[in-house]
Structure formats: C-alpha cells, structure tokens
Amino acid sequence: MKLFRLRSFVAVAETQKSVDAAKKLEITPAAISQHINDLEAEMRVDLFERKRSGMQLTPKGRLLVSHAIDVLESVHVLEKKAAVLEEDVFDTLRIGICTSPADLRLSEITSSVHDTNSRTSIHPRRMHTSQIITALLDYDLDAGFVLADAVPRRLDLVGITLMDTAVIIPSGWEDLLQSSDTSIWAALADKPWIHAGPDCMLQTLADKRFRSMGLKYASTLQAPDASVRASFVTAGFGASMMLRDRAGRVNGVCIAEVEEKTCPLGLVYLRSRANDPSIEHLRAAVADTWI
Rounded to whole angstroms, how far apart are CA atoms 106 and 145? Predict the structure, then answer.
C-alpha cells in the first residue's frame, strides 16, 4: 500500500473535493482521482460516494480514514526519530507562533530547551492560529502557540495562561474614553471595526460581547495579522481587539477602558507525538518559563 494514496485519501476526506485536495497536496486533480481509484481497487472497498456536491465518505470510508491518519502520523513520528538518531543531524522543531516572540517568552523557552538538549534547533514561524492548526494537521509544523480553547481531536492543547485583551481605537475618538463600559460598546457598534477574521479568538471575544448586549457592528476591513490591524487603527479606519501587551506598544492609538476579557494561550502539537522527546522537552520548557 502506497503512502501517497493514503495522503490523497485523507486529503479528499477532509476537503470533500478532488480539486481542493489536489491544491493541498500540490498535485493534479487527475492524480488524486487515480490514487483514490487505485486505493479502492487495492482494498476492494468503496471509500467515497461521488456526488455533484463533492466526495462523501461511505460508511466504510469513515471507518478507514481514521486508520489512514494513524498510519501517516506513525510514519511522520518514525521519520522524526530516525532523523535525530543521525549523529550529525540537529533535531529541528518547527514552531508556529500566533503573536510576537516577546509575548510568548520565546527566548526563555528556547534557552530552556537548549539547556536540556543543545542539539535542538527551534525554527519559529509567524502564523495565525488557524494556519498553525492546519499546518500541524498537514505535518508542516511540529508544535505551535495558539490563542484557542479547543482544537481538533488529532491535536493536544496544553493551556499556558490567560492573556489580557484590549480594544484599541484611533486617537481621534478620545471622547469614547469618557463613557461607561456599556456606553463604549454601544458607541463602538456605531463605528467602523477592523475585523480579525472568523477564526481569530480575539474576534470571537469581541463578537460575543457585542451579541451579549444585543449590538451589531459594521466591519469595514479584515486583517488577521495584528500588526496590519494596528496600522489600520492608527490610520483612523476603525477599532479592533488586540492582546493588551501588544496594544500598549502601538503608537497613535488609544485603549478603550472596557471590561477586560482574557484570551487563552496554549501549546498545541499532534497527539501522536505527545511522547516524542523533542515535544516533551518543549512542553517542559514552556512549563518552566510560564509556571
């Protein structure tokens, strides 16, 4: 059984479309279709129902896809362990970070990891939480720091801390600062809002606050990247929710003193790698740094 066929099987199961699976794996849709047909012939099982709306897993396909995922994750773990056994190969940890290294205390964590294993090299990548989760599921990252309170079942999420949030507004809106918490949110609902994206935990917190007060707001721009949102607020385009520490470092804006909300920060990695020494070292370093 070929691993590339299993990868195509899992990709189609997740996307439900051959075209989207092909983009994900960077191959052609025809290759995806051939892989699925060959796998079905090899296993003598119909894995999908072909419909105009897309590819739907059959009952047998639903039973088998979890096993296919387990096989691929086991191969990934095997490859990682084989690499670190090589005398001259450093163990590289590709880590997604959803906010600045300073917010995550990444330098302290890196030092702690190196104290445990000097041959571990940490390569951080700045990404949004949703991108980190996708990259982990696609084996493109080894771990990540995310703003989230739940992740897909293939991942483990270790809570680190609750981070304070803040609403930043253009400097020309100072009159809002004299209002009460309720009045500020009502006023913000009448102002343009810089949306952080539907998958952003910060935006989820803001949306919940608006809904709890029966308010609707107008979103004029969307920018998942916090630095881009900050620049839009500085330019006067609207308000936005940010981590308080980062908000305090933005020039040319005001912080609206609304009731503080907290956003959960966590470390996430594939559940199948929970006992991987490099993940254990990272987990211990995070605990030493934050606790």
Answer: 10
Burial class (CB in 10 A: 0-12, 13-18, 19+), 153: exposed
> What would the pLDDT profile of 201-226 be if each residue is shown by its tens digit?
888 888 888 898 899 888 888 888 88
Same domain, 126 and 166: no
Residue 167 reports pLDDT greater than 80: yes
The residues that bridge with 158 in the sheet, in sequence order, are: 267
Residues 237, 153 share a domain: no
- Structural domain for 22, as ranges: 3-82
- Which stretches does DSSP call E strand in 127-231? 143-147, 155-170, 192-195, 218-222
**Looking at residue 56, which CATH number applies to its domain?**
1.10.10.10
Q: What is the CATH number of the domain that holds 221?
A: 3.40.190.10
Q: How does pLDDT run across 258-274, given as a tens digit for each residue? A: 776 889 999 999 998 89
Asked if 235 contacts 206 with a C-beta cutoff of 8 angstroms, the reply is no
Indicate whether 89 pLDDT > 60: no
151 and 278 inside one domain:
yes
